Amino acid sequence: MSFTPLSDTPAYKQLQLHQQQMHQQGLEISHLFDQQSDRFTQFSLSAAGVFLDYSKNRITETTKELLCDFARQQQVELQRDAMFSGEKINFTEQRAVLHTALRAPSNTPQRIDGIDINAEVHMVLAQMQAFVEKVHSGVWRGASGLVITDVVNIGIGGSDLGPKMVCQALRSFAHQGIQSHFVSNLDGHALDAVLSQVNPASTLFIISSKTFTTADTMLNAHSARAWFLQHFSAADLSRHFVAVSSNQPAVQAFGIAPENRFGFWDWVGGRYSLWSAIGLPIALSLGFAHFRALLDGAHAMDVHFQQAPIEQNMPILLAMLGIWNRDLLGCGSLSIAAYHHDLRAFPNYLQQLDMESNGKRINHHGQTVDVATGPIIWGDVGTNGQHAYFQHLHQSSDITPVDFIAALRPQHHLAEHQLMLLANCFAQSQALMRGKTAQQVTTEMQTQGMSDEQISLLLPHRIFAGNRPSNTILLDELSPMRLGALIALYEHKVAVQGFFWGINSFDQWGVELGKVLAKAIEGDLHSGTTATSHDSSTAGLIAKVRAAGK
Ligand SMILES: O=P(O)(O)OC[C@H]1O[C@H](O)[C@H](O)[C@@H](O)[C@@H]1O
Fold first, then answer.
1. CA nearest ligand 1 atom 11, residue
2. Does the keyword Secreted apply (predicted)?
3. Does ligand 1 lie within 6 Å of residue 357's CB atom?
């Protein structure tokens, strides 16, 4: 089959030409605001309770039209529909991609290989609900009769980042009496820090691993079990250890009874799994009703994503803006600035979602994509970031687009804080967009009575080039419904970008090589011999470990 490199396709060429023309005309975002008084209305929309203002991007109506043409050329809608219909679009692993089915209401049948997955999903949800209610009501107790006060989730990657982020984000909705802990890192300091805080008699461990083979999780799980057995007998394990996994034999081999396993399926990718039983720590932390609300919020975004035309489709628009910034403007990273302290784990969560999905360069034809693919995702909460790396955003030679995220209503009563927080959020995007010209800086310094000498020394340092793009995403409040919709928005954005680039956003071969090499090196460290195949750096580093152990 003949294959046209992306940059040779008509829609891409049109975009390139348009970008060059904008550049030649010296069109800046602030000029576009001056020219069009309703720019905010033109370039903003709401969906599933999420509001997106994308007016502070380097785009015109023509840019948007050309990006929509690009989406049509790349058959983004067709690929979206293939995903929702259960086609095996994760073709390197021959799997469907149906995390959206996890949040669909009951009685919306969907079959994969003849099995009604909607019924299966709701069976597991019912199992989770019953379990959560037993733990919360004290029907489920520890082996010595104490109620459960601490839940320790042991998992990594998708079996950690989503649940951890959601539990933190929605802490104001938490069920009283349950403290959640998350152990992911195989570094013993992580497990040790949690074990030193909890009482084995009132602690429930959730071993979360889709494959139940991930070395990090298995080591932590075995160490947690050994710690528990210092206090209790093997017969007591069933009151304190449950598993979330699609690998029933491995769960059983670990010693967890089948009735203590919450299952899920190979059509749920790890980084898309918080909606499945991997969300058990969320349901235990918040209560099942709030977990259901999270799913409902995501479902509302799913419906919008499936039904809205490209021009008004929030995930598709967000994806297109990302493509514009990445491929046409050459921005290598995207910074996430959440102006909500409880969203401080959101950039971390998005790193896996985006970078594990789109940190690839081979397309469906086995060819290298000839434009840049997934950006680097990084960030922190506002206002902390302002006092750390925002300098770079405003004045460095790199242009980094920013997604500002804020909730209008806080979950606290410190009204003064909220207004100041929002003022800072809006001011940052305004400053990035407007910048400050030499004329403005000079006038300012003259008003301050500075000498000509001082002015000429300071002037270049105090100029802000501006014209730096950002999106602002507003929620009315950070509720389970709205957080669900926000996460689904980013999930779909990432998927759509993969559709544009023609890559498989749902596999992760890139994480395998390091795992295999770690096993070999671990063998060397244990045995005291060093494989001759190692390079001199690796052999030298191994020797350092040995020397330290003597
Ligand atoms: O849930 P598990 O099977 O333990 O996998 C945990 C994580 O580890 C892997 O290395 C993958 O890169 C992740 O996508 C996955 O979420």
1. 157
2. no
3. no
